[in-house]
Every structure is written in C-alpha cells, then in structure tokens.
What does this fold into?
Amino acid sequence: MMLFLFILTMVYTVFCDSNDGGKAPRILLNDGNTMPVFGLGTFLGFDENGQKQVKESEVELPVTWALNSGYRLIDTASLYFNEEQVGRGIQKSSVTRENVFVVTKLGLNEQRHVLDSLRASLARLNTSYVDLYLIHNPVALKADHSGFDVVDYVDTWRSMEEAKALGLAKSIGISNFNISQITRLLDNCHVKPAVLQVEVNLNLAQDKLIEYAKKENIAVMAYTPFGGLFSKSRGPPPPRKDHPALVKLANKYNKTTPQIVLRYLVQRGVIPIPKTVHKERIEENIDIFNFELTPEEMKLLAEFNKDYRTVWPSFWQDHPYYPFEKKDVPDPDIFKAGVKV
Ligand SMILES: NC(=O)c1ccc[n+]([C@@H]2O[C@H](COP(=O)([O-])OP(=O)(O)OC[C@H]3O[C@@H](n4cnc5c(N)ncnc54)[C@H](OP(=O)(O)O)[C@@H]3O)[C@@H](O)[C@H]2O)c1
Ligand SMILES: *[C@@H]1O[C@H](CO)[C@@H](O)[C@H](O)[C@H]1NC(C)=O
Ligand SMILES: *[C@@H]1O[C@H](CO)[C@@H](O)[C@H](O)[C@H]1NC(C)=O
Ligand SMILES: *[C@@H]1O[C@H](CO)[C@@H](O)[C@H](O)[C@H]1NC(C)=O
It folds into this structure.
C-alpha cells in the first residue's frame, strides 16, 4: 500500500502539470527539486559589432509574456547582461516568484568569486535565491575578460556546493562540460550536478553525452534548440524551417516546423529553452504538449544529426579546459569584441 502511494505520488510529480497554470510538466531532479521540461531562453546573440546590447525592455517584456502564457522556467546568465530585465519581467507578470524556475549562470570571468558573483546576480534579479545556478563554461577568463584564467572547475564546484548549502541556489549544475570533465567532477564532488546545459538540436544529437547524463541521473537542458532551422547563411547544414520532411509532420499534426523540432527534443527527454522576443512565437513555441510524435517519426528526425555545432567558441580552444573539438584555424573572438564590461 505504502509503495503504491509512493509510486502514485512520484508519477504525479513527474508527469502532471503543477496547479500553478504552467503548461510544461515538471521532472524530478537528482537533488529532490522539480523543474519544468520547457523554458524561455534570453540570450540576444551577436551582430557585426559583437554581443548585442540589451535595449529598453527587450528582454523584460518577453519574460512577462512568457510567464503569463504558461512558461515557468526562464534561462539567463550574468554574461547576458539582462538579469535586471528578467527580474522586472517576473515582478510584472501574474506568476509569483515561488512558481518561477529561475536559471542563471556563473560568468567565465567570475569563477574565482562564486558567492559574490551569485549575490550580485541575485541583486540584479531582485530575488533571494535562484532555482538553478550553472557554471557557464569550464573555461575561465580574467575578471576584465582580458584573457584566459586557469581555475580548476573542481575548485569552482566547491563554491557552487557552498552556494547550495547557503540556500542561495536551490540546485546547482554545469554547462558546456564534456564527458571526461563530468567524470572528473563526479569523482571529486560532494553534491552531484543536477543539470547539464549543452547544445542539442537536429544537427547536434549529442547521443553519447545524453546517454551518459541519463545514466548519472543528471537532467539535460538543450540550448540553441533550433540549431540552423532559421539560418539565412549557408553555414549550418539543413534542415531549414521549410524542409519537406518537417513540413509533412507539421501538416499532419497541425503544428509549425519549430513546434515539431521542440516536441522532438522534449520526447528525447531533454529540456529545450528556445529564445524569442516575439509574443506570438513565445506562445507558439510552448504549444507542444497536446500531440505526440510516433517512434518512427522520432527515428526519422534523428537522421538529421551531423554532429554539427552551432555554438563553437574555437577562439578559446587553447585554454586547458576547452571542452569541444579543436579547429585547425580557430575563428576570431567575436565575443571579446562585443562585451562591454
Ligand atoms: N549555456 C550556454 O553556453 C548557452 C549558449 C547558447 C544559448 N544558451 C541559452 O539557450 C537559449 C536558446 O538558444 P539560442 O538563443 O542560441 O537559439 P535558439 O533558441 O535555438 O534560436 C533563437 C532564434 O530563433 C528565432 N525563433 C525562435 N522561435 C521562433 C519561431 N517560432 N519562429 C521563427 N523564429 C523563431 C529567434 O528569433 P526572434 O527572437 O527574433 O523571434 C532567434 O533568432 C539562449 O537564449 C540562452 O538562454 C546557453
Ligand atoms: C523587487 O522585489 C520587491 C518584492 O520582493 C518589489 O516590491 C520591488 O518592486 C522589486 N523591485 C523591482 C525593481 O522590480
Ligand atoms: C490548427 O491550429 C491552429 C493554431 O493553433 C488552430 O487555430 C486551428 O483551430 C487548428 N485546426 C484544427 C483543424 O485543429
Ligand atoms: C574534454 O575536455 C578536456 C579538457 O578538460 C579535453 O582535454 C578533452 O580533449 C575534451 N574531450 C573531448 C572529447 O573533446
């Protein structure tokens, strides 16, 4: 009887919508907290001058729209320079703080000052805790971004554990770590990372990394979930949003091709955080919890994989903790060019 009740409670926790009006179900993390399986990304990206400057209410309004239309997870980072707007967006929404899962990240230039950096993020977000704090990257940069710093991510993790113990972050995790780095972290940690945030999309399946994370009971968040779907340049390989195979599925389910892609990721068991600043697209992107792709359709979509990375900061590749494959000729540092610290 007890066992039955326990199982019933677990099934409820994992699969049922919470009663806060959120549209995405929640999953149980390895630390006992729960997390929505879908969220809003807030990074505005780059233009020819480098990282885009955040203007007026460019991020604040989308955050409010998202929460009011059923999102319960918002992804930001100190390096997006928009945490104030995220905080105001939450404040101005109809959702209470306790019902929002706020994710922010320790900047690459903040690894020597984890607690101070988190407290600064909390002040900008106007909150006393975040739901999830991630190490943005195993690569560390000097405080003023002037060059590499070498900080062992195991040491950084000690301070992340302290942040959790202090209640400043309910859960802690990592982003852009590769398998061997995670293994080394697991061998040396007291608190396991609850979440790994990495790029996952049709062009970059990440099968090995996802399998490894699942085995370790670490939840995987999928950043850049659209990959090259909307790309106008020849850079990323297909599919684009008008690819016949995607259009066929979209027509079958009366959905759009971005919705097919997001549904595919959710059914793979990863947590997509698509970014858009447009109200209609915000509503469109989360409207994927009322249909299901068949196993054959999942297989078909898996065939798009080319192990192609959209986010590939090869200008950091001489750093000892660079996590990705190296290029013969690294790209120029567009990030450094644009960041105004
Ligand atoms: N941990 C990390 O290192 C890392 C790295 C990259 C990203 N991230 C996180 O992941 C989030 C998402 O990744 P991302 O921003 O790189 O890429 P993304 O979410 O895959 O794609 C964003 C692009 O898609 C467009 N878009 C979104 N929904 C659309 C729709 N329904 N129809 C047409 N176009 C649509 C957006 O345009 P509009 O805004 O103009 O609609 C934007 O240009 C980021 O915002 C950030 O929070 C984390
Ligand atoms: C910060 O949060 C408090 C409530 O916790 C609220 O009264 C105040 O208006 C918020 N400040 C901003 C700038 O949103
Ligand atoms: C198809 O989807 C649109 C947009 O969500 C909706 O307005 C319309 O009623 C749907 N049509 C059918 C036949 O379900
Ligand atoms: C993982 O990261 C380490 C640096 O910490 C690097 O030496 C190794 O080559 C990376 N592994 C892969 C598969 O890229």
About this structure: The pocket of 2-acetamido-2-deoxy-beta-D-glucopyranose (ligand 3) is lined by residues 254 (CB under 6 Å).
